[in-house]
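Structure record:
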Amino acid sequence: MKQEKQIKPINILHIDSYDKYGGAQKSTVNSLKAIKSALKSSQPNSKYNFNFYVIHNNNKIYEEELNNLNIPNFSIKMKNFGDIAAIIKISRFLKKYKINIVIFHSSRDHMLGGIACFLSGKKIIKILTRHVAYNISFLKGFLIYHLLTDHYIAISKYIKNILIDDLKINPDKITVIYDIRFADDIYDITDTADTTGVNAGKYADKDMDRDKIDTVGIGTDKYRDKADEIKNHVKKELNIPEEMKIVSIIGRLSNEKGHITFLNAAKFIIKKRKDIKFMIIGDGDLFADIKEFITNNKLSDYIIMLGFKKNVEQYIEASDLIIVPSGLEGLGGIIVESCMRKKAVIASNVGGIPEIINDGLTGILFEKDDFHELADKILNVIDDEKMLSELGNNCCKKITEEFNPYKLAEENINLYLRLLKLESLNI
């Protein structure tokens, strides 16, 4: 009698205590899309059955995105670092679903989930995905990074170096895996959704060479073929004259993102010319302050605040130039999203940004906080369509090679298997 193949279940839980939908949440959604599609291509020969779960903090947009992907997700209120009720609920979840690996995305969920792992009495591998480059206090660093973590995923080489230099983390415990920020543009995993949430999507056929997937043309199928139509639609929606240029900043409205630098550069440029519209897309703590700055400086005719936009892609497509003036940036996910649509980017020379932007080749760098330099560089290229096109095309080529979602998905999967001391998959 033929012996049935033994399939080992592997249960992986993401915990995210942030109550708003942002770059880290989008990256997790896209990672799960790409990982599920990659795993589908390895079936029916796989020795493993991967099950993914997410615990979030009543994050409704995140919940909707996960539901669309058929990822089981649960809301647990995580109020602070000492939320005993949250710890107990997470611990019960870990035991009920026999979780093998927990992946954390911020200090709060890391503390709560890390303690819950110990209380569960189970041997659970604890992974921290480090998205940001903030300084870490000694106490937090000792408790969370040394006592409650088995391994680290750094989203850039810059963040890996911070973990090593500032927290003295063993380099062997750190794996650099870039964020997956453009899975939607290569395939549509919801085309043939099934009950497991795992489906082939448009390009999940094993016969396709995923190393050559860049020949699809990132952003082309979904956006570039309709670039003029999208741009006209956005300009009509926002009542922007057709001849006006659009310069945009996209991201959370917080101090480290450099919105004040952007505003001061815009103010300087507006004094020189009136044919540029500046768009601010995002929400956050600085919303009222930025609105007040625009009003007080009488810039309302030239600067538009759009707030949070779920379909941010169309506003990227409508822009002539994307600005990323961060004072602190682990990598710069919005740069990846912009470059995949072949949009030129001007960004501050900080953190992990230079891992994407080679000055003058794949984008333009300026020194952080220097709004005069930023204004000059915007004015130097905004009318040079050839330069803008070259920068966008060069950056698109770079990210399709280094940020291929299937390659990054395979790196994630095989990291999980390595930490569980299991055989890697050849996907």
Summary: The domain at 224-401 is CATH 3.40.50.2000 (Rossmann fold). The chain has two domains: 8-209+403-419, 224-401.
